[in-house]
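step: validate -> pass
step: tokenize input -> pass
step: predict -> running
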Amino acid sequence: MTTAAAGSPRTYQVRTYGCQMNVHDSERISGLLEDAGYVRAAEADEQPDVVVFNTCAVRENADNRLYGNLGHLRPVKAKHPGMQIAVGGCLAQKDRGDIVRKAPWVDVVFGTHNIGSLPALLDRARHNTAAEVEILESLEVFPSTLPTRRESTYAGWVSISVGCNNTCTFCIVPSLRGKEKDRRPGDILSEVRALVDSGVLEVTLLGQNVNSYGVEFGDRYAFGKLLRACGDIDGLERVRFTSPHPKDFTDDVIAAMAETPNVCHSLHMPLQSGSDDVLRAMRRSYRSERYLGIISKVRAAMPDAAITTDIIVGFPGETEVDFARTLDVVREARFSSAFTFQYSKRPGTPAATMDGQLPKQVVQERYERLIACVEEITWAENKKLVGETVEVLVAVGEGRKDERTGRMSGRARDGRLVHFATGELAGRIRPGDIVHTTVTYAAPHHLNADGAPLAHRRTRAGDAAEAGQVPRTPGVLLGLPTVGAPAAAPAPVGGCTAN
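step: predict -> pass
step: emit ->
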């Protein structure tokens, strides 16, 4: 196979690793490429003209995963003249020129601060037949000013800030994403309205430390005000946010969550450890009592709130007593779900050189005990919902066994995953529609509703999904987004193009 025929658009594929911020960045990468005339390759296409890896650097195996995948692409590229490979994201920001040294068949390396340069870098690399590496040390433009190809007709990510001012000793993100930069509230709300006008029902506000929003313009209550402002947007049915930091969690945010009807009663708040000694070594600037106090206030205001968290096992110096305290906090907090991680040493972080690095077998054994504890609690909490009616926003890709079981899947308002029977409505329910159904069975990680749905509401998001359309927000939020596939554009020619 050779390059795209003259006059036909080049195809692209974006492969994403990491957090929600990376997923949202990939939407922007797709939007940029389509703005430049590229067309998304079919999922089954193993030889797109451009492959972009949007990487994460948080976990220890991130490097191995990237270089393994680059190695698999080397023979593919050799048989496909003109194919280009680009690497961006946090790992690119960290490794920089090392990527081209280790994998000289890579054409473009770009960082977290210059996503908008990608189309020009691809053009330049093609014209010069040489790798282009461009890593900026600070943000060039706020990512939300870039065109975006949204992946969902019914739910959208909206960045309210990028970067982080915290100094957690295990985390490499601040050095790769930079200091916190906050968007103006009016720009955020304009983007939310544009998404809603295109049919989106649910918006998730994103930030590395979402509830410190406002620090850059001196308003510590800005995040709570932003949540309330989202409540005034007609057609916006669900508002979520991730991830807040306990040290910045204020009572006005709890009040805004409880008093704003479209803000979901779900909270993802990382704990990391239940041991105050480990939290101090992590430089987390709160203690377990403060954390549990926030949860108590949230549940007092919203008894139905589902609270999820992140926990790290095996941080340097963690003792058996420290780990036992983590289990105690998990039992007291009654999480509905937890993302659990074995501590991963990342070069460039203070924790990587700390004394007391734990043997793998110790970390693994504690990890398995933590998983057992978490699942016992999440299962017990989920069982409380059997017999309850839940509102489900129907989703794509949430239920791996749906085709075999004849179910569809989606998320309840509290964020729990629900697999539901469609009954006589089979074939009529679309992703993006709203279904009310009764929970009949609970597992540690999901709920089943095997009776006929009690109600089904068709939505504009469902109409868009049925038509195969996706929202696109333009780079500068003036007017409304367009929906649907763009007209084919001619393939870029040699030389640099202005963006």
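step: describe -> The radius of gyration is 23 Å.
step: cleanup -> pass
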